[in-house]
Amino acid sequence: MKVLKSFTITILSLLFTSIILVGLYLFLSGFAGLIILVGGVAGLFLLFILSFKNPVSKHSKFFKWKGKVHLSFLLSYLLVTGILLIFIGSLNFVLGEELGELSARDKLNLLAGNAAVNTRVLDEITDDYSVRITNHMTFKFPAHLEPKVDEIIERMDEVETLEKQVFGEPLQKTKKLEIIILANAKEYSRIVPWAPSSQVGSYVRHRNRIMIYQQEEVPSLQGIFSHEYSHYLLDIFLEQNKVDFEEIPKWYHEGVSEYVSLQVIGGDRYPHASIPEISLNNLRNHVEWNKASRESDVYYLAEKAIEYAVGNSKDRKVLSTVILQGKETGSFEESFQELTGFDLTILSNRIYTAQEDLNHAYATCQNSDYETSVSLYQETVKKHPGESLAWHQYALCLVKHKKWNEAISVRRTMIGLEPNVAGSYITLSQLLTLVDTNEAVKTAEMAEELGVKENREYVDDYYETWLAEITRYHRLMNAKNYEEAYQAMSQSEQLSTSPEILEELNDIRNRLQ
């Protein structure tokens, strides 16, 4: 009985000691922790030696252990405590050296899987950065990226418009936001060494900081900023409405941010990998999200879920209403289903089904099975009428088989779905070259106007060049200079990816001459 009592006391003592050590090191700096580590190990070693000294044992209650069994409990306690102290203390010191001084919250975030920031390297890199303060935002950036910062600031009105639509009104920016724009991915990985290589930005809630970097291969810095800024807006909305951050699923946080980003920059998002077994129900917290993201494009799934929810309700404000109603009812999932009409499992399956339908139809079209592929695309757009990617692929299939009138009709439908996307107007303009050059010019003018508004860096002068080409072609055709018109258009870089259109233009020239 005494042995059992000693064993219980030892286990409870170890548990209590572990809690003290973990709590202590959460709030200690790396250097202070190192001092306690050295002192603690030395003290434990001294107690270990003294436990064998009979004179000491006789005069100390701590060492009054009868027999070898009781002595083994004491030695086990000292040994395990020493190991814990060395492990926790060493980890704390390494974190301090590698990442700079971390707060207790930073350390907990790191343990939870959130990438911690190396503040020492961050300060070193950004020491000579330029600073721009506008409203509630403070930008820090290398001097050569000032034009990018100008573009972000100039397009804040678009983000603010979406903010009003999603949240019903402009949010009170009581939290000042720091926005750090790094020069490249190397700098980002030095500052956030444990971040996934695919991560292009982050929003740190407790620091009110966005950190992104310029990518040469994916130059839409505006899109990355819009995504992270949406996290900031959602964070403010939750605080102002006294909603616990953790009560909202991770997929919803990311889905809303990705949705707003795509609304700002335009275009579709293509999944790079998908696993149908991964459902929105399995993406509630950070751990589940990170695990699933290693295997599947969960950002695509989350964004599509938000897109379907908004499309089904015809009101972007449903995204914030879901949160508020969920707070009242105590169930986010029930609120989401009631307001959007989607059960999360059924919605996940619907998104995957749409993707599978598209892949099947696309493969059939590539195999030149026109009748079957058209039938498949017709079924797909009927099942998923709001899926712009389905309409886009359908149009490509019709172009491949030179069904011009049908392709033009589908492209007009796409403009109805994406009235503010320049790319939709460009693809229609190129098709209109075959049937109505005057309308082709007008559509190209609209594309250029929207392109300037989008200000997407990778477009360069694409829209302007196409407008010049189609305008010249229109004039030459009106002048009945068919040979020169065709020769000019045959050299178009924009049409080089559409050999079917070029072949049809050649046929038009031959028929008119």
From TrEMBL:
<keyword id="KW-1133">Transmembrane helix</keyword>
<keyword id="KW-0472">Membrane</keyword>
<dbReference type="InterPro" id="IPR011990">
    <property type="entry name" value="TPR-like_helical_dom_sf"/>
</dbReference>
<protein>
    <submittedName>
        <fullName>MnhB domain-containing protein</fullName>
    </submittedName>
</protein>
<feature type="transmembrane region" description="Helical">
    <location>
        <begin position="7"/>
        <end position="28"/>
    </location>
</feature>
<feature type="transmembrane region" description="Helical">
    <location>
        <begin position="34"/>
        <end position="52"/>
    </location>
</feature>
<feature type="transmembrane region" description="Helical">
    <location>
        <begin position="73"/>
        <end position="95"/>
    </location>
</feature>
<keyword id="KW-0812">Transmembrane</keyword>
